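Entry 14. Ran structure prediction on the chain below.
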Amino acid sequence: MTSPSRETGIAIVPGTACGPIVVMKEPLSFWGGVDASTGVVIDVHHPAHGTSLAGAVVMMPGSRGSCSGSGVLLELALSGRAPAALIFADPEDTLTLGAIVAAEMFGRRIPVMRLSDDAFGRLASAAEAKIAPDAIVADGGRVHIALSAAGHAELRLSPDDRRLLDGAEGRAAQQAMRIVCAMASQQGAAALVDVTRAHVDGCIYAGPANLVFAEKMEELGARVRIPTTMNAISVDHANWRCQGVAPAFGEPAARLADAYVRMGCRASFTCAPYSLPDPPGFGEAIGWSESNAVIFANSVLGARTAKHPDFLDFCIAVTGRAPLAGAFLDEGRLARRAVRVEVPEGVDGSAWPLIGYLTGLASPDRIPLIKGLAKTRPTQDDLKALCAAFGTTSAASMLHIEGITPEAEGLGGNPEDEVVIDSEALAAGWRKLNDGPARVDLVAIGSPHASLEECRAVAERLDGRPLAENLSLIITAGRDVVAVAEAEGTLARLRNSGVGVIPDLCWCSITRPVFPELAKVVLTNSGKYAHYGPGLSGCTVRLGTLDDCIEAAVTGAAPARLPGWLSAATISGRERPRS
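Output, structure tokens:
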């Protein structure tokens, strides 16, 4: 008789559960990757697309992508559609925080465990598992994994931390500090750190759970301690009623935004907070959420923030404190993999979302040092596009670009290995994201939110030409950008061509009918939306150059093709036709 295995693991959020095992070989973003109402995987680029996670013991290396995954998990927990348990091979924050909030505030416990590689591999071969606080048993008892509590050094708290934790400043601050401390403990942080500002991502209405959390905190008396901006929300706050949005969605989405404003957050409503006046400075410790914003702040600005999950962001805003872990520390900012990009001559702005997307695939679980781009002179919008696309395919909170980003020379360090992205890989990646029907119904600009320069570029390229019949071009942008565009006349030029410019919401939170009802094929210049869009909208979403987007806008079509800079490179390289 074969004796049972005796591997060990750590119970991050202890509890009991049982269910069939679902193994995912790739990390997954729950936001844009899992339907919050059913628990089914909707990420069309993920191997588990179509799989139901409801009631399953879900095993995966870790999560990736959006900070809003914690909100999706809470939504699933409150509706009874959550996984029975989550088991990771690597450290993981986003879904873990969702499970902590579900247990702390709502009494809905989703056990979370982290296993060694050997234990993970053994369990992954089983069909179902039974989980207790001290063990996982599977395969008829032949797999037995002992679980221990997460063992960390005692978290050092300041006198002010202890006052908050003891309830001296009210129940909301006490609850927020409990959640901050719980996350610090699971991250192995020895202490907390003061942050100067926060950015709240949980104001997006993923479902009733986000609203329940916000209104519960408001009921407890929550107020932010530090300047706090807000991410894009799920409606155009002033205009959703006249846009035809159903009150059943528009009212709770607006209520969610209003609750955060009443608690002291600034109604900035943008997913590009680095474009607001007075962005964070180099070395400044901040408490930001929203994956693209976190990666841009760390990588391009040199500010310091972990990739905080939704709900933790607001708890940090209420306490002014964050776990001193991850990218707050030098060791948490070191590059561990080099990614060399063999970029062709003559690249334009369309290269950056593609490079970000492929770099994330090449470095899904570690900070990369990107080589080969030093002579390209990217704009802030180029780097925004790269960071956003990188955040869809990697769990890392930042990246370095040799010769471009401020810490590449010092913290680029000594990467453990190197991956090469050559012109063939670039072409294959573009074809994957650009594939689809030539006929286009909708052109989507502004994921993350369009800058003033991007709005001007669209106006200049259209040059007053009307849009093709039955086609929509919509730009989403922060209200500050829209106000300046209106004052200088750019907004009028866009609207004269029939372009819709919508503030407050963004493409990852837009819903029908603001998203045109009859649209089936979407063209976008955003690598982020090309990845998330199919699952979120149910449409074919293609990546194109800005010129492709303008061509589609005025003709109604943009055939699948490589951008000029990449087409020339593949013809002159391995794809040159033989004579």
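The chain has four domains: 8-149, 159-330, 334-431, 436-559. Will compare against last week's run tomorrow.
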